[in-house]
């Protein structure tokens, strides 16, 4: 192997005018062969393919780490295993029959629709199989994360050869028949996807959406002290914002208590049809990038297999040795009394692996470049069904991997080869229990949420901080589960009024400390609160933490949770996967209290996104007060396999339900509130409904206004906590039946529904309901907002008490013209309040300090 020092002369020449141009120096460097005279400097600022041909292939390995730890026999075994893996990868993409090519390849053997990605498979397989040696040598607890998009052929081939796949799917056995079924159901109707879907053993990261491999990997190793997440990052994936930020996860990894992530950045040069950025910057710039991120980068580059095997084996062993050294030092430090001290933050190792895209594939397809070029990214040869010559080329390519020799008459690799490369039992990366996290999950030790109840004498009389109160409960959840629960959030825990949690677990921090940090900084390497100003990274950490068998909660400002819209997906119900803890998201700093921040902070539409997900998976709760918030949170933390979203404001609010009533109300999910209703045992004139804490406040205030003007009005007050109660029972397991719907809302009375989010969501959920088309009138956020007071924001969107009361007058048939005077008074009061808000900058006190006056209701009405 050549040393990096031997490249100094080449790099110096690249700094000269001779090598200036749009063809990047590292692009040439990475593809140079051993003999310097084969360098072809660009004659202009554009490189044509004839120049590229002369600098490909990559040549013998160049690596930072020296050494040849493999014997000749081991190198041969690695070559054989590599070829067997690549054969399987191609077979998944192309074949539906004749899996071992025991007869000439015909059109009938080829899938009618060719799907899948081959380009990143060779480097991923190469990395995976080389790490197996170290698992066996050091008895490592490790698993693999496939970051490159649609990289399933790599990990599926490894699971199949390890023997895990046929253990999970017995019909995909290691013989000709099993291999045929294995090939056919890849990217095939009724089969599995081309990324590492939940059906893939050993996978907690799909790779279909790029950018989250590193954050998922880190989430999985927090509180798993012996676990190593070997994570391959695609150089296309590395261009995404979430991935770029997630490199900073190393500042949150405690070597004393956590495991480690070993990232391998695979520079294969191209995305679907473009070069990648990190593959076209100089070696020095790339090295400095990762040094700046706080990593120690080690480089392995080339395509000559024998030398690459030695280089990769030596480099991975160097990385594992460093990881174990850092962990041992930290754990010895803690053992010697440094329990709360400032542990040294390691510069964890990472690898830059530069290999050709579609490595080992044909160099050319007709007169176009294939291996080493973007054309190898997806299906390398796309027209084998219409071009007989290309079908022959595919067959020759696949036969070059020697399936007859490697899989033999039984259609399986030899036990000798498997035992030489693969670990045994749960040490096989695709069998690691951490990748089926439900096997490791233990129930949380939860305090009794009733002990944190908010007490009051009369409903809607007491203002209390619901979120601050919840923080006391979460603090004790953290204290009771010091190694299996973490709170995640983008620098908002304090702002979201959850600061009490720091009493049980401070913010995880492995960076530098300043003296002033002691005053409210709450920083500690042993913390339980994860904060980084990146919703992507926080969500990725949480997902990795939960998928690997633990529990967590993400808290975030409601308007900015849209950043993770596309991430909120739960694993499918796969029979062999054990249920994991639910993915819990707490949204606060809600739209109706972002009046001071303006339109950019006013977006409650995350609920629309979640409502589109599978009804078997998602749940949405909008507790109206503090006791309901406690009940909902306790329920969500105990649940499994759901995405739970709780929406609750962080400011002080009126409290409506004593704890027992709150439990009953949350258990039902929706119900009549007799304390605020006047229709007991009678036909209502109006149903006044609400969903959301602030929406409920204004709805009750509107009932108060109506009763002031019309004391004999029969009003039914309905409150919804579980949003999916509104949908038909046929479409969601939580949905009400039509009989239950009419028992609450009637089938023929006007309904004024004040909703926290966009009104169209309620219309969409209730479109099947009896009478909903003509009687249901929803008020919610309608993109009307700026720098307003809370009242002004509500008026703009017609969710304020005055608008609701006037709307009711307009829709109650018995009032007709009798309500005209009252309506005029309400409009005048609204204008007066709004004018005062404009003048003073705050809403009038008689509105902000409003409480329920009871209106002389009978005791049986109040307590019914």
Polypeptide structure, described:
With 864 residues, the chain is α/β, with parallel strands linked by helices. It folds into 4 domains: 4-55, no CATH class; 71-436, 3-Layer(aba) Sandwich (Rossmann fold); 450-652, 3-Layer(aba) Sandwich (Rossmann fold); 670-863, Rossmann fold, CATH 3.40.50. The strands form 6 sheets. It has a 6-stranded mixed β-sheet, with helices on both faces. The chain has a 6-stranded parallel β-sheet with strand order 13-10-14-15-17-16, with helices on both faces. The chain has a 5-stranded mixed β-sheet with strand order 19-21-20-22-23, sandwiched between helices. The longest helix has 31 residues, at 305-335. Residues 1-57 and 856-864 have low confidence and may be disordered.
Using DSSP, what is the number of strands?
23
Give average pLDDT, whole number: 88
Radius of gyration over all CA atoms, rounded: 32 Å
Residue stretches low in confidence (pLDDT < 50, at least 5 long) are 1-57, 856-864
**Could you give the distance between the termini?**
84 Å
Name the beta content range.
5-15%
Major beta-sheet overview: 6 strands, mixed
Please work out how many helical segments DSSP would assign: 29
CATH class of the largest domain: Alpha Beta
Structural class: alpha/beta
Q: Compute the number of structural domains.
A: 4
- What is the CATH superfamily label of the largest domain? Thiamin diphosphate (ThDP)-binding fold, Pyr/PP domains
Helix % is 25-40%
Q: Which topology of the largest domain does CATH recognise?
A: Rossmann fold
Shape assignment: elongated
CATH architectural arrangement of the largest domain: 3-Layer(aba) Sandwich
Major beta sheet, strand line-up: 1-5-6-4-3-2
Family: Belongs to the XFP family.
Cofactor: thiamine diphosphate
Pfam family, one: XFP_C
Keywords: Lyase, Thiamine pyrophosphate
